[in-house]
């Protein structure tokens, strides 16, 4: 037996373990997501040895887009505010993209997909329990490892992770006629998402559910429409988001909220729009958001030291425009539109394809209002979620009814 064949089961067990651990890691230490993606990527690469050209052909268009993004990020260091930061960010992205592509390519090579799904479900249940325990005990599970006092917002990443994955998991279980487990898991997850404090996560999950319902009826047509809308939204971001603060109804609603996080977002986007206009073609350089001139100025009506641009714009299209200009925005538009169109062409069961579309919608809404575009936990979560969606599609087939 060739050496590669003998070690394949070890790599599969490694992927099972990564699938089990990912959500619990997001609950307990979200910074561990990137190392876990690295381990999963190495396991996936092990499954692809000896190199199978067919497996890599499945991801070649993604590889071209990601490679172009990394190369453009490196080139942008030539005019970036902090050149070395741009270089480091590009290299970090290259590593994460390589791990993610290996995972996607290896998804069809898994020989025991049902076992991997069971590990995912077990990890999901454990993560839900851990998140409830953290809230109930004020972070007692991790208090010994952190100097700072526990705040509920540290669970936002886990809350988003639940939202990214629950719809495809629930659909796969239903199609396997494990309906009681599916309903229970979806209900508990929805309850946990509602209890945790992330407003963006709740909104994104709700919109994901709406998208899934619509896609269930009109998948192919709506995926094409979603691809078109995504291109318009990404390319038109500098003309849309920075001007929302000037709409009286939007500004009034933001100011009247108990938490003024929405007002802060509007002010950030307005400031970023002005900086994009200064360098619209090539941008300010990869990962330059935290060093943009004027970004450390206090926001009018702000509180607790809120500034014009805290680390990043909290809006992925605006960040791509700000840092990478027109080429970055075009690459993002091609990527998102391509994923929507690929979803519309999949031979997956109707319910499962709709659930996968709901997951994609959830992730896109989160990207429009939270986090930085290059945050490791977010990129890692998306790659692992896509890998799991592809693997689950292999077991998401209705079983014949017994008589």
Describe the protein:
There is one protein chain. With 403 residues, the protein is mainly alpha-helical. The chain has one domain. It contains 16 helices and no strands. The chain starts with a helix and ends in a 10-residue tail after the last helix.
Any descriptors?
403 residues
- Count of DSSP-assigned helices: 16
Main sheet: strands, sense, barrel: none
Strand content: under 5%
Kindly state the mean pLDDT as a whole number?
89
Count of discrete domains: 1
Quaternary structure type: single chain
Radius of gyration: 21 Å
Q: Find the structural class using helix and strand composition.
A: mainly alpha
Uncertain ranges: none
Architecture blueprint of SSEs:
Elements: H1 3-28, H2 33-47, H3 53-57, H4 60-76, H5 83-106, H6 113-137, H7 156-175, H8 179-195, H9 199-217, H10 219-235, H11 237-240, H12 248-256, H13 261-278, H14 316-345, H15 350-369, H16 376-393
Helix pairs in contact: 1-2, 1-6, 1-7, 2-5, 2-16, 4-5, 4-14, 5-16, 6-8, 7-8, 7-9, 7-15, 7-16, 9-10, 9-15, 10-14, 13-14, 14-15
Question: Briefly, what is this?
Answer:
The chain is mainly alpha-helical. Helix content is 70%, strand content 0%.
């Amino acid at each position: 037996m060739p050496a590669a064949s003998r070690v394949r089961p070890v790599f599969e067990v490694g992927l099972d373990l990564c699938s089990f651990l990912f959500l619990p890691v997001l609950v307990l230490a979200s910074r561990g997501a990137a190392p876990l993606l690295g381990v999963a990527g190495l396991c996936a690469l092990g499954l692809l040895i000896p190199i199978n050209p067919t497996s890599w052909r499945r991801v070649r268009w993604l590889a071209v887009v990601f490679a172009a993004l990394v190369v453009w990020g490196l080139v942008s260091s030539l005019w970036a505010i902090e050149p070395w930061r741009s270089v480091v960010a590009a290299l970090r992205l290259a590593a994460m993209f390589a791990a993610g592509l290996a995972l996607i390519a290896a998804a069809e090579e898994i020989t025991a997909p049902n076992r991997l799904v069971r590990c995912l479900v077990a990890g999901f249940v454990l993560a839900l329990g851990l998140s409830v325990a953290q809230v109930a005990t004020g972070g007692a599970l991790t208090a010994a490892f952190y100097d700072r006092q526990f705040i509920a917002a540290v669970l936002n990443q886990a809350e988003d992770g639940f939202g990214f994955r629950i719809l495809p998991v629930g659909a796969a279980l239903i199609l396997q006629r494990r309906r009681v487990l599916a309903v229970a898991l979806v209900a508990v997850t929805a309850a946990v998402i509602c209890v945790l404090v992330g407003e963006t996560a709740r909104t994104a999950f709700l919109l994901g559910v709406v998208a899934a319902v619509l896609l269930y009826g009109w998948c192919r047509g709506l995926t094409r429409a979603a691809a078109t809308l995504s291109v318009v939204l990404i390319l038109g971001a500098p003309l849309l988001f920075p001007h929302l603060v000037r709409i009286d109804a939007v500004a009034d609603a933001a100011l009247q909220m108990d938490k003024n996080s929405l007002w802060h977002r509007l002010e950030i986007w307005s400031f970023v729009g002005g900086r994009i206009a200064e360098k619209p073609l090539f941008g300010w350089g990869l990962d330059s958001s935290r060093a943009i001139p004027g970004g450390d100025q206090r926001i009018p009506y702000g509180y607790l030291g809120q500034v014009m641009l805290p680390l990043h714009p909290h809006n992925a299209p605006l960040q791509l425009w700000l840092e990478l200009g027109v080429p970055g925005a075009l690459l993002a538009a091609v990527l998102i539109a391509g994923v929507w169109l690929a979803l519309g062409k999949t031979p997956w069961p109707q319910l499962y394809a709709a659930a996968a579309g709901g997951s994609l919608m959830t992730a896109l809404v989160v990207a429009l209002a939270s986090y930085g575009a290059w945050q490791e936990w977010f990129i890692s979560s998306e790659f692992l979620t896509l890998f799991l969606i592809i693997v689950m599609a292999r077991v998401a087939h209705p079983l014949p009814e017994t008589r």
